[in-house]
């Protein structure tokens, strides 16, 4: 069932910036997002970029040592959100990089929040064309161990 929630244009721009791997200057690469969270607006009518909930590629090695661990800490403990994580991982054949769409719905989130986020998920997924990996996560136990995501991606290790 659709919720009638729409996706803000900034969300689509952020997704396209993360998806496109054009040759860029070193400065542009540093500004690229490694991870970002999206939430519902105050009036629950739009999916928006959550302010201050992002990790830039340029932060890695500077203010962020473990990008995945830092991403997990950005997740709200008692509310839902959506996330995009640019995972770099290794398979037997090669090193790969893929965007992972994450639907975070922790057990402690209010039922109403879970319902509206679940019914709005298709709206955001339709805007994220080309996403190969989707992961619904219901608690820290599911997401803290990076091996779980590596396994979902078909790899053995990732950052």
UniProtKB/TrEMBL annotation:
The keyword Nucleotide-binding does not apply. GO terms for biological process: actin filament depolymerization. Keywords: Actin-binding. It comes from the Eukaryota. GO terms for cellular component: actin cytoskeleton. Residues 4-153 form the ADF-H domain. Pfam families: Cofilin_ADF. Belongs to the actin-binding proteins ADF family. This is ADF-H domain-containing protein.
